[in-house]
Design goal:
- By secondary structure, the protein is α/β, with parallel strands linked by helices.
- The chain has 3 domains: about 90 residues, Rossmann fold (3-Layer(aba) Sandwich); about 210 residues, 3-Layer(aba) Sandwich (UDP-N-acetylmuramoyl-L-alanine:D-glutamate ligase); about 130 residues, Mur ligase, C-terminal domain (Protein-Tyrosine Phosphatase, Chain A), CATH 3.90.190.20.
- The chain is built from 18 helices and 20 strands.
- Strand 7, helix 7 and strand 8 form a beta-alpha-beta unit.
- The radius of gyration is 23 Å and the shape is globular.
- The N and C termini lie far apart (about 55 Å).
């Protein structure tokens, strides 16, 4: 199955990062002329410049210049470029088509798309769904060079009948016709306030994952999140809910005895226990929201129940997401560096099966931290680092956390956590903030935590 053509010969690509390079490669494979723009100066993009030179693409640095973009038939925007950039708004007002990367991808292929979005848990959910369906996976972090963009995945897998795609709010901003055969909305908590300044705007953009679905498409939504539940209950698709708190009429839920499902007749009508907790891999027992969402999404996409059970029993987890690093002197060290917002850190505390000594801190992005007060009350102790340590410390004071320490760096934080922990405790790095005040990215932060923990003597 070849990629479908698009009615454009000269295409502009906004953003020279990893996703922009993938878009350009795909367009050049289709024989299109490509011009690339980026707001950064040329000296910041030397490696990218070599890629575009090899692809024979014209590149303009320093701005997304409207005059340059207007000379093309189509503009494709990388996820990292805000869709409300003035030049892009002006072009749309003048009738120039401006698409996001996933919109372009959807127009190039007839593959059925299974899409997942949410503030927290997308990557683990999508990884599980991909394994359960034995389907290719496009990762939404592609623009940060940690995944495969959908446009390139489809180009490399033209015969794939089903593709799983992780979709961020940045990507949903720019959709027009993107239709998902199965769509899942995991949760909505304050994040990315630079792009979505109000909760209402964030809910609206996340909800767009269902926008172009039709009655025979399938939807999965989280009953335990009030905002998501309100969106899901308005859908006219074949839909199910997932919950840790209640048994839905149709859906997937958990109890102390295990995981259960009751599915619509349109997808086979399975009803019964999917797995007892003793049959669930340890990595997933602390990622229950993602586990339930993945099972619901995969089964709605036609996954075999036996295949789903096998994945649930064998999955070892993703790096930097409640990743067990080491057992040491009665303590369990857990790397949850990907937790860059309060919901993620709350989930880490809630899912930990033992008392927690939490290491947190970084750039909290102006997000309201007050919701952390309740989960903080469960902590054994809190060790804080980074730019916004004092903001988190204020929440800890409100919550009455008995032991709070401040540390100059991550190594000192691990040392303080060891002093405060008791045998049987979990020492969890779940920062509740971005890493850029101290590290290149969340992965570098997590890798440094691993190094420090493995260096502990004995």
């Amino acid at each position: 199955m070849a990629l479908k053509d698009i009615p454009a010969e000269r295409v502009a690509v906004c953003g020279a990062g990893y996703s922009g390079q993938a878009i350009t490669r795909t367009l050049r494979r289709m024989g299109k002329q490509v011009v690339v723009t980026d707001s950064r100066p040329a000296e910041k993009l030397e490696a990218a410049a070599r890629v575009f030179a090899d692809l024979e693409a014209e590149v303009h640095y320093g701005a997304h210049d409207e005059a340059v973009l207007a000379g093309t038939d189509l503009v494709v925007v990388s996820p990292g470029v805000p869709f409300d950039t003035p030049s892009l708004v002006s072009l749309r007002q003048r009738g120039v088509p401006v698409w996001g990367e996933v919109e372009l991808a959807a127009r190039l292929s007839d593959a059925r798309l299974v899409g997942v979005t949410g503030t927290k848990g997308k990557s683990t959910t999508c990884a599980l769904v991909s394994l359960m369906l034995d389907a290719p996976l496009a990762n939404s972090e592609a623009y940060a060079a940690r995944g495969v963009p959908l446009v390139e995945l489809l180009a490399d897998n033209p015969d794939a009948p089903v593709v799983v795609v992780e979709i961020t709010s940045y990507q949903l901003e720019s959709i027009e016709t993107l239709r998902l055969w199965v769509a899942a909305l995991l949760n909505i908590a304050e994040d990315h306030t630079d792009r979505h300044p109000t909760r209402e705007s964030y809910i609206a953009v996340k909800s767009r994952i269902f926008e172009n679905q039709q009655a025979d498409d399938r939807s999965v939504y989280n009953l335990d999140d009030p905002a998501v539940r309100a969106v899901g209950e308005r859908l006219k698709t074949t839909r199910i809910g997932v919950s840790e708190r209640e048994e839905p009429e149709l859906g997937v839920w958990s109890t102390p005895e295990g995981i259960f499902a009751r599915l619509p007749q349109a997808v086979g009508g399975f009803a019964g226990r999917l797995a007892g907790w003793d049959a669930v891999a340890p990595a997933l027992r602390v990622l229950r929201p993602s586990l339930l969402a993945a099972l619901g999404t995969a089964l709605m996409a036609g996954a075999d129940v036996a295949a789903a059970r096998r994945v649930v029993s064998e999955f070892e987890g993703l790096p930097h997401r409640m990743e067990r690093v080491r057992e040491w002197r009665g303590l369990t060290f857990v790397n949850d560096s990907k937790a860059t917002n309060p919901l993620a850190t709350e989930n880490a505390i809630r899912q930990s099966p033992a008392p927690v000594v939490l290491i947190a801190g970084g750039q909290t992005k102006g997000i309201d931290l007050a919701p952390l007060a309740e989960p903080f009350r469960r902590l054994r102790a809190l060790v804080l680092i980074g730019q916004d340590a004092r903001l988190l410390g204020a929440v800890a004071g409100t919550a009455g956390v008995r032991a709070v320490r401040y540390a100059a760096d991550l190594e000192a934080a691990v040392g303080a956590a060891v002093e405060l922990a008791e045998p049987g405790d979990w020492v969890v790095l779940s920062p509740c903030g971005a890493s850029f005040d101290m590290f290149e990215n969340f992965a570098a932060r997590g890798e440094r935590f691993r190094e420090i923990v493995h260096a502990l003597p004995g």
